Amino acid sequence: MENELSLPRTSSARASEKKPGGRPPRLRVNNAREALELAMNLLFFVCGIVAVAFVLLISVYLVISGLPAIGEIGPLKFLFGTKWYASTEDFGIFAIILTSFAGTAGAILLGVPVGLMTAVFLAKVAPPRVAAVIPTAVDLLAGIPSVVYGLVGMILLVPAIRVAFDLPSGATLLAAIIVLAVMILPSIISVSETALRAVPREYEEASLALGATHIETVFRVSVPAARSGIATAIVLGIGRAIGEAMAIMMVAGNVANMPGLLTSVRFLTTAIVSEMGYASVGSLHRNALFSIGLVLFLFIMMINVFLNVFIKKKKEE
Q1: Of 6, 166, 175, 204, which has the maximum CB count within 10 A?
Q2: Please, which residues have CB within 8 angstroms of residue 54's CB and are 6 or more apart in sequence?
């Protein structure tokens, strides 16, 4: 009689009977999620530490390898000397530093306006069909190897400059600037377009409601609001320009002259690439090349710090 009147047991009751004294399944799921979250946090932490460690190792290695040569040559003679002859152990990189400054500045002056205007066109002006096609071409431009840029510049650009300016050789700083300007376009366009698309629509609607035209809204509201992303694009462009070697070595002439728009020149990167292969291990020549790498590394760090401080100051204002 008791069995006939007994109520059917629920699934939770059956589970409790099958696993007496065990934790409920929900607690086990929570514990598994907490363990997974802890593992992922640990993984992210390790990845961050590895990234920082690589930067520190590179910095320490460049300092250890580069400082002895600077001390042996003399800081003033090394940084402000205008002659670079490995045969006579004259290692002055002032002309090479000025060339790198001039080449990077020229590439930025040419590439940033073109890249920024293209990004504005794609993000705010272009019809949807056009805006869907041009980014594909930009991505293709980013995927072209640097040696191909140098080959095209050497075949087409260098002879054109030689004929146009009646020079014995068209491998000049001007050719290097044009090639670098083209090479930094993909980075500037992609990052700037992303920053412009991330601007809240309410900003533009408020500007239009106040009577501004669409173009005025783009350049007075959208572009200033995306200033941080555009500055990041410029930093990436500078890094690409100053770190390029192969393409520049093919179109710049690779001669350690003082910078001139129509003269053959040598950049910091091309000096390392062109001479590291035959510099004897442990020689002053090889250590001087490591010192050039240290100068290049410090140069890029100074640019990044300056732009980051400039952006932060603008945000606070």
Answers
A1: 175
A2: none
Determine contact, residues 153/178, Cβ cutoff 8 Å: yes
Q: Which two tokens stand for residue 156?
A: 């087409």
Instruction: Decide: 267 and 100 in contact? Cβ < 8 Å.
Output: yes
Q: Is the dihedral of CA 226, 228, 231, 232 positive or negative?
A: negative
pLDDT score at 29: 66
Give pLDDT, residue 119: 93
> What is the rounded CA–CA span in Å between residue 107 and residue 105?
5
Nearest to 230 by CA among 148, 146, 108, 142: 108
Q: What residues have CB less than 8 Å from 231, skipping those under 6 apart?
A: 307, 310, 311
Query: Band of the pLDDT at 7, cuts 50, 70, 90?
Result: very low
Alpha-carbon gap, residue 63 to 200, rounded angstroms: 45
Residue with tokens 């952006």: 311
Largest CA distance in the chain: 116
Cα 260 to Cα 176: distance, rounded to the nearest angstrom: 12
Predicted TM-score (pTM) of the model is 0.81
**DSSP three-state, residue 122:** helix
What is the C-alpha to C-alpha distance for residues 247 and 135, in angstroms, rounded to an integer?
24
Give the C-alpha separation, 111 to 96, whole Å: 22
**What is residue 115's predicted lDDT score, i.e. its pLDDT?**
93
Q: What is the pLDDT of residue 114?
A: 93
Q: Are 229 and 198 in contact (CB under 8 A)?
A: yes
Cβ–Cβ under 8 Å, residues 90 and 81: yes
Name which of 256, 273, 275, 272 is nearest 264 in CA terms.
256
Crossing angle of helices 25-73/284-316, nearest 10°? 130
pLDDT of residue 23: 53
CA angle at residue 219 from 213 to 223, to 5 degrees? 135
Among residues 14, 129, 79, the alpha carbon closest in space to that of 294 is found at 79
pLDDT interval class at 4 (50, 70, 90): very low
